Amino acid sequence: MSDDHDPEATLQEWKESMQAEHAEAIAEPDPDADHTIEGVAQVSYRMTFDYDADAGELVRASTEQVDDLADPELLSCVCGVRGMTREEARQHLAAAVE
Ligand SMILES: [Zn+2]
User: Fold this and answer.
1) More reliable by pLDDT, 11 or 98
2) How far is the CA of 54 from the centre of ligand 1 (A)?
3) What is this structure's pTM?
4) 81 CA distance to ligand 1 middle (Å)
5) How many angstroms does the Cα of residue 76 sit away from the middle of ligand 1?
6) Which end of the chain offers a freer environment for a tag, N or C, measured as fewer CB atoms within 10 Å?
7) For 51-62, how does the pLDDT look when each residue is reduced to its tens digit (9 = 90+)?
8) How large is the average pLDDT for residues 66-91?
9) Which residues, at least 6 apart from 50, have a Cβ–Cβ distance to it below 8 Å?
């Protein structure tokens, strides 16, 4: 800790302390908590629409899946640790089963 009030240095210190807390939460899971890794992923579809002249509205005509379901880049744990890479999530569960 320094006594000067350089905002850049303060921000840097804050980032480092957040990163240290994050690393600690990953490496030292709460033994009393449940640990299940979760994430949200999306699949894209190409859709076509027809014009329903009677209703004056577009109606969905077809959907075609254009990519495969891929694992999300960032994962979280139900114990509250968020924003983990796949490797960090692996380490978190590995530490939890020890
Ligand atoms: Zn956890």
Assistant:
1) 11
2) 55
3) 0.71
4) 6
5) 8
6) N
7) 999 999 999 999
8) 96
9) 58, 59, 61
Q: Are 59 and 52 in contact (CB under 8 A)?
A: yes
Count Cα atoms within 13 angstroms, Cβ side, for 57.
3
Structure tokens at 38: 């979760």
Cβ contact 45:63 at 8 Å = yes
Output the six-digit token pair for 22: 């994050």
CA distance 93 to 28: 10
The ranges assigned to domains in the chain are 7-97
Its sign, for the CA torsion 77, 78, 81, 83, is: positive
In b/e form, how buried is each residue of 5-28, taking b as 16+ CB within 10 angstroms? Answer: eeeeeeeeeeeeeeeeeeeebbee
